[in-house]
């Protein structure tokens, strides 16, 4: 058994959480260490994108101060 088989993934097609790489990579988000994290995969991705956008905005404005 590989480590990925113990990790949790969110299936974007079905909205279900799965343990192991059960789904095609096109519909799989993860890996996550816990089922709870995988349940919140979309929220985690949304927050990471928000942080990246804020960083990019800050980087774009480096010379405006």
- Low-confidence sequence ranges: none
How many helices in DSSP terms?
2
Rg calculated over all Cα atoms: 16 Å
Strand order of the largest sheet: 2-1-3
Helix content: 25-40%
Organism: Corynebacterium felinum
Protein name: SPOR domain-containing protein
Can you walk through the features of this model?
By secondary structure, the protein is an alpha+beta fold. The protein has one domain. Helix content is 38%, strand content 18%. The protein has helices spanning 35-39, 41-60, and strands at residues 8-11, 17-19, 28-32. A three-stranded antiparallel sheet has the order 2-1-3. A hairpin with a 5-residue loop joins strand 1 (8-11) and strand 2. The longest helix has 20 residues, at 41-60. The chain is elongated and about 50 Å long.
């Amino acid at each position: 058994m590989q480590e990925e088989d113990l990790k949790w993934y969110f299936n974007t097609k079905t909205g279900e959480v799965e343990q192991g790489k059960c789904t095609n990579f096109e519909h799989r988000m993860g890996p996550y260490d816990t089922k709870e994290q995988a349940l919140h995969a979309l929220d985690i991705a949304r927050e990471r994108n928000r942080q990246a956008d804020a960083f990019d905005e800050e980087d774009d404005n480096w010379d405006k101060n």
